[in-house]
């Protein structure tokens, strides 16, 4: 190759390189796929009843005609009229996508919508205030001894237990209790009341959001 041919050679090489970079860039900007025509979408919520500021896991199943899952990374659009949820979720290799609905401080029914291509479906999540029951055993103790305080936390009129790990705040007018306890899978939390060396009536109060019981 002569020196006179070098500029043309470098120009051609630069053009090829630029075209290659453009192809890589365009490939990297591809949008996620959507469900093909005639796909079926099923949506569910767990739990379907949550407390104020609680959360529910939304699960979407997308399958093609014939029962095969859609492609890994298929885009699912999500929306709700109450609380918040991510706008987009992507399926895994099983055709399953998940997202978390986060309730705010408003009661009501959250209508959660999911769609991908022409496939669409809706599920409901009830957002309700919690109710608390508090008891102590024994209810009379000597100075320096203890009592077990039991808190039962439920949601709405159905009496559904709050989610495991829900935090409940405790205070007392006499003696000592932990500042914070968490519920188990039955919506029950326990704490030890320490009478210390005092006499009188201790009022132990439990609080969960706007709910309180003594």
Explain what this protein looks like in three dimensions.
The protein has 214 residues and is mainly β. The protein has one helix and 16 strands. The protein has one helix at 6-28; strands at residues 40-46, 49-51, 55-63, 75-80, 88-90, 96-102, 108-116, 119-128, 130-137, 146-155, 160-161, 167-172, 180-182, 188-194, 204-208, 211-213. The strands form four sheets. Strands 2-8-7-4-5 form a five-stranded mixed sheet, with no helix packed on it. It is elongated, with a radius of gyration of 29 Å. The termini are far apart.
The portion of residues assigned to helices is 10-25%
Strand line-up in the sheet with most strands: 2-8-7-4-5
Question: Helix segment count?
Answer: 1
Biggest sheet, in brief?
5 strands, mixed
* Helix-strand makeup class: mainly beta
- SSE string, helix = H, strand = E? HEEEEEEEEEEEEEEEE
Bulk shape: elongated
The poorly predicted ranges are 12-28
Radius of gyration: 29 Å
Distance between the termini: 94 Å
**What's the overall average pLDDT, rounded?**
87
Strand content: over 45%
Please tally the β strands and state the result: 16
Q: What's the quaternary structure here?
A: single chain
